[in-house]
Structure formats: structure tokens, C-alpha cells
């Protein structure tokens, strides 16, 4: 049960549990499999299909012998099996962590309004007012060039890309200490896998309007960072992430993103990521498996590592330019999940980010954002990938 001591709660009745049965699109088990050796993303439904679609392509990339081809098949079968077992393994890790891990800062696991920046609370309060509108909320915006319209709490950098304070500096410090305490512990941890997509990538990064070219890899791993912590496994979902989404972020998203499900956000996936020097430092051009994404810079001390945004994923790269957004500690960048973006490498220090993918089943039940087809659903535990068993005429259980 949520225990948020917040004035925001008084504005409405809050649903405190998962009332729907969430699902995963079956494309998760077949699509976007990355063959790192050949820098190729593939789809695999059967060995016959794979041979027809990819044997000649692989030969042109250096996979010339039967032994090399069979090694590829072995890796793909192992990856498909890993994905099918991922949910059960995650649940097992969560149970073990709950039993064995002793937190450093227990208080950070339950959202309190004292954790939040006062400016953020004011933005949310406005969004909950009778008669609140997108136009009214946009009166809080300052443009990238610094032209103040009314206040400076919300920053607009690119179409529908906003930056604003979310947490206090003190809370960010405590949360980073908790994450690093967990990282150092002997508790089991879910780790990124190089054959799985973080969102979905583009073939390259476009030219930046600041005359910098993002050094994006031609093809990308799941998460080009040194550490990823799945926050539901660590115990943040129920009392921190869920109320943050429902009580604070959904009112804002309902005004800023009404066309992509911002009003109907009903599930999420949250994780913390860490960038450090001399390790995997960069997250290349991609879009997220989300309707709306929140990305908060938690700290610590670092240099560079700005985010960059292009256009929506439907726009060809040849017609795209990028805008860089400085990522400041305690501030968040809010954007559409389907907005192409990436992260430039840091040049010194260490940076932790909290990333929250927010999903709207009413939106994605019509079209899976990852395979661009009507989703074919498979039952899942928890929030799955944000699909629900609804009789829309488009979603079919398999």
C-alpha cells in the first residue's frame, strides 16, 4: 500500500494495486536479437525462416562456414531461452534480495513529498487543478535560448522534450548511496545482456545542431553502461515508483502527451543505470519501449554525457538533426518514448540515472511499439510489457 505523505493525494482517489492482468507481446521472444560479432539485429521464429532471411546476409558479413553458422544458431537459441526464463529468474532474484539484502537507507524505498523538489510539486499541483490545460502548463516553460515566458521550472529543448527538477539534492545523494551499497553487496543482480535491445536502435546517430556528431555505434548493445539495476527487484516498485507515476507524473503527462497515452499511464518499468569512465560509456541512438519516458540524473560528479534528441522514429535519419540537452543532477528529462534519442559519453567521473518507462495499455494494445504489429499477447506476471487482456479486436492471446 502506498504511504505517500503528500498534499497531492488529496486531489483524487488513487488505485493502489495492479487491477489488470498485464501481458507481453510475443515479439519479445523473436525480434531484435543482436548478433554482436556480425553487428546485426535479427528476427528468429524458426531455423527455416532464419536461414531464408539471413544466411546470405551473414555470409556477406563473414559467417562463411557451416561451423560459424551453427555457432550463430546456438547463440540465438540460448538467447531465446534466456528471454523465456527471464521473468521467473527476476522473480526469484527479487525474493532472494528481499530475504537477504540489508538496505543502507531504508527510507528511500517509500516515496515522501519531502524527497521532491518544491518546483516539481508546484507543477503537479497546477496539472491537477480544475481547468488545467497544456497551454497553462506551457506557461511554466523557458526555451532553450533562455527566453523566460513566466517561470523557469520547466524547460523546453526540442518539440515535446522537457527538463525540470524532480528530486532534492539530498534525496539524490541518499539514493545513489543506496544503489552503490546494493552494487557492492553479494545480493544477486540482473545484468544487461548484449543480445537484447534497450528500447530499439537506429543505424546511426544524426548530425547535431550544435555541430557535434554523436559518436553513436552503428549497432548498439542493450545498455552501453557499466551497471543496470532493475528497481522492481530491489523493492522500489510498490511504494516508490508506482505512486511517483500515478500521483505525480501522470497528471503532467496527461497534459503534455494526450496523443500518445499520457492520460492513461497504467504500468511502468524502472531501472537505475551507471556510467563510469573507461567502461562502456555511451548509449546510442534509439527509442524506448514506452509511451512516456522520465530520465533523472541522480549524480555523482561527472563531466559531459549530455542527452541528444532527434525526431520521432518514423522520420528518416537523412531528415534529422539533433538537439543536446544538458543532464543536471536532480533534474529530469521527460519525453515521448518513441522520440529517438541517445546519451553522449561522459569524459570524467561517474553518473547514475533513474530511468522510468511509463506505458499506457490503451495505446499499446492497438499497436506494439517494438514490432509495429497488432500485439500477440502472452500472459505475464507484474506489469509485463504494459499490454493488457482487453477485447479490442486487435490483441490476440497466443
TrEMBL record:
<keyword id="KW-0408">Iron</keyword>
<dbReference type="InterPro" id="IPR006620">
    <property type="entry name" value="Pro_4_hyd_alph"/>
</dbReference>
<dbReference type="GO" id="GO:0005506">
    <property type="term" value="F:iron ion binding"/>
</dbReference>
<keyword id="KW-0847">Vitamin C</keyword>
<keyword id="KW-0560">Oxidoreductase</keyword>
<dbReference type="InterPro" id="IPR005123">
    <property type="entry name" value="Oxoglu/Fe-dep_dioxygenase_dom"/>
</dbReference>
<dbReference type="GO" id="GO:0016705">
    <property type="term" value="F:oxidoreductase activity, acting on paired donors, with incorporation or reduction of molecular oxygen"/>
</dbReference>
<feature type="region of interest" description="Disordered">
    <location>
        <begin position="183"/>
        <end position="217"/>
    </location>
</feature>
<dbReference type="GO" id="GO:0031418">
    <property type="term" value="F:L-ascorbic acid binding"/>
</dbReference>
<keyword id="KW-0223">Dioxygenase</keyword>
<dbReference type="Pfam" id="PF25238">
    <property type="entry name" value="OGFOD2-like"/>
</dbReference>
<feature type="domain" description="Fe2OG dioxygenase">
    <location>
        <begin position="266"/>
        <end position="360"/>
    </location>
</feature>
<dbReference type="GO" id="GO:0051213">
    <property type="term" value="F:dioxygenase activity"/>
</dbReference>
<keyword id="KW-0479">Metal-binding</keyword>
<feature type="compositionally biased region" description="Low complexity">
    <location>
        <begin position="199"/>
        <end position="210"/>
    </location>
</feature>
<protein>
    <recommendedName>
        <fullName>Fe2OG dioxygenase domain-containing protein</fullName>
    </recommendedName>
</protein>
Amino acid at each position: 500500500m502506498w504511504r505517500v505523505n503528500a498534499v497531492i493525494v488529496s486531489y483524487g482517489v488513487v488505485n493502489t494495486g495492479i487491477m489488470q492482468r498485464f501481458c507481453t507481446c510475443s515479439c519479445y521472444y523473436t525480434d531484435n536479437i543482436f548478433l554482436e560479432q556480425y553487428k546485426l539485429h535479427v528476427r528468429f521464429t524458426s531455423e527455416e525462416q532464419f536461414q531464408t532471411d539471413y544466411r546470405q546476409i551473414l555470409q556477406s558479413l563473414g559467417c562463411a562456414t557451416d561451423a560459424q553458422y551453427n555457432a550463430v544458431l546456438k547463440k540465438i537459441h540460448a538467447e531465446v531461452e534466456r528471454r523465456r526464463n527471464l521473468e521467473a529468474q527476476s522473480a526469484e532474484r527479487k525474493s532472494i534480495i528481499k530475504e537477504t539484502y540489508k538496505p543502507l537507507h531504508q527510507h528511500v524505498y517509500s516515496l515522501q513529498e519531502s524527497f521532491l523538489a518544491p518546483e516539481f510539486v508546484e507543477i503537479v499541483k497546477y496539472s491537477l487543478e480544475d481547468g488545467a490545460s497544456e497551454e497553462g502548463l506551457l506557461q511554466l516553460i523557458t526555451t532553450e535560448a533562455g527566453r523566460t515566458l513566466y517561470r523557469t521550472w520547466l524547460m523546453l529543448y526540442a518539440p515535446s522534450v522537457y527538463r525540470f527538477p524532480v528530486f532534492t539534492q539530498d534525496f539524490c545523494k541518499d539514493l545513489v548511496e543506496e544503489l552503490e551499497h546494493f552494487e557492492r553487496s553479494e545480493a544477486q543482480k540482473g545484468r544487461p545482456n548484449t543480445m537484447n535491445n534497450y528500447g530499439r536502435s537506429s543505424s546511426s546517430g544524426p548530425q547535431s545542431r550544435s555541430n557535434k556528431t554523436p559518436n553513436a555505434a552503428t549497432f548498439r548493445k542493450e545498455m552501453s553502461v557499466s551497471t543496470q539495476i532493475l528497481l522492481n527487484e530491489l523493492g522500489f516498485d510498490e511504494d516508490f515508483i508506482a505512486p511517483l507515476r500515478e500521483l505525480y507524473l501522470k497528471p503532467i503527462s496527461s497534459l503534455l502527451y494526450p496523443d500518445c497515452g499520457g492520460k492513461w499511464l497504467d504500468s511502468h518499468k524502472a531501472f537505475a543505470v551507471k556510467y563510469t569512465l573507461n567502461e562502456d560509456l555511451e548509449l546510442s541512438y534509439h527509442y524506448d519501449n514506452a509511451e512516456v519516458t522520465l530520465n533523472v540524473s541522480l549524480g555523482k560528479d561527472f563531466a559531459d554525457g549530455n542527452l541528444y534528441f532527434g525526431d520521432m522514429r518514423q522520420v528518416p535519419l537523412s531528415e534529422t538533426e539533433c538537439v543536446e540537452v544538458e543532464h543536471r543532477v536532480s533534474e529530469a528529462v521527460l519525453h515521448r518514448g518513441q522520440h529517438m534519442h541517445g546519451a553522449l559519453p561522459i569524459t570524467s567521473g561517474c553518473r547514475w540515472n533513474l530511468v522510468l518507462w511509463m506505458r499506457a495499455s490503451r495505446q499499446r494494445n492497438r499497436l506494439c511499439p517494438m514490432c509495429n504489429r497488432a500485439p500477440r499477447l502472452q500472459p505475464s506476471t507484474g506489469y509485463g510489457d504494459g499490454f493488457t487482456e482487453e477485447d479490442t479486436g486487435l490483441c490476440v492471446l497466443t
